[in-house]
Amino acid sequence: MITTLLLCLIFLGPGYLIGTWLNLDRLRLPYALLYSYATYLVSFYLVAFMGWSAERMIDISLGQSIILLAILFFRGDIRRLYPARKLSFGTWQISAIPELIVGMVATIWLALVGPYLEIPTDVFEHLSRITDIRENIKHGGFSASFPWYSAVATALSYSGESIRQIIWPLTVALTTIFLLSIVSFARAIAASTALSSTGLWILLMASPVFTALLFGTSVFSYLRYYVFAPAFLPYLIYLLVGLVVVESMVNRRQAVSLTETTTTTGLGLFVSYIVHRQEALFIAVLVGTAVAYAVVVTLIKSRKSRTEKLSQSLGIWEILGVAGIPIVLICSVLFKFYGTEGESFLLINNVIDVGKFIGLDRQLL
User: Can you give the pTM of this predicted structure?
Assistant: First the structure.
């Protein structure tokens, strides 16, 4: 349990406080994960570069949280650590009850079914890598590789718990974080719609349920099969970047600033590229597509207003669309070209190996 709490501190603590400081009350949990993961990676490479012991990363994370708490206290923002989780829809308001229900149901569900340890499963490979890195740490070794496994191994070394003691509590914690983040995304999407109170309740409660039931690869549930994989948390970061980019460039009704969009996209690419590169590729394709869409829409609107001349200057996102359109076209051509060899080249165990598009070694993903 101590290991799980330490990992929650590393991957949620600093980011939650940074989100409070930056007034990121909307999507607080996904933003907490993004900023925490980014600060952890900086600490991870700093510790490896300086040759310090791996446990120093825990000390750095604790120090970051203490410093951020002090800043919030002196700024008078400490009360905002507990934001009023309410969204107004006319005369109706919704509180944090959906999150509480999802958290309790997820815990009860996982208590009944337990962690996914059936064969065949990759969980034993993930746990063995964590064990190997922990043994390396025990003998004074530490290297800047496998940041996710290193975080778990370092927390284990810090707490003194065994690998078997963390399987269930860490499964519960990571799965609950994933499902609560899905609820946050559903809230953000609902904010731009005119749902009734009943419709909003259905959306917030059905989103995590259908995610648990339908989201997966082939016959494997993502929540059950990949919970110890490096890709598990970065996928939430990909969804966060996707939502912010779409709101910024496609759904202009949402007031998403250019600074928030570029920061979120940049940090998302930074984290996902280091931890699990498939999500970085997803983000690149999504941003390219969104930018291309924004360019086309802007040009069409300008053409309607003036036959030969643009009625308004293009913004930074529209200018970047010149680069976004080729990215989308290249990815589409690669998919079409390699599609003829799908069974032998792209498909491995009925799963599309996206890394083959850009020459990535599957072992690095």
Answer: 0.80
Rounded Cα–Cα distance for residues 15 and 39 (Å): 8
Helices (H), the chain: 2-21, 28-50, 56-75, 97-113, 123-138, 147-159, 163-190, 197-214, 222-225, 232-249, 258-275, 277-305, 316-338
Report the SS3 class of residue 308. coil
Candidates 116, 131, 158; CA nearest to 3 is 158
Beta bridge partners of 217: 220
Q: Over the stretch 70-104, which tens digit does the pLDDT of each residue have?
A: 988 888 777 766 654 444 443 334 567 788 888 89
Q: How many CB atoms lie within 10 A of CB 90?
A: 8
114-155 per-position pLDDT tens digit: 888 877 678 888 888 999 999 888 888 787 889 999 999 999
Q: Which of 325, 341, 335 is nearest to 358 (CA)?
A: 335
Distances (CA, A) of 317 to 17, 48, 237, 272, 300: 30, 37, 21, 22, 16
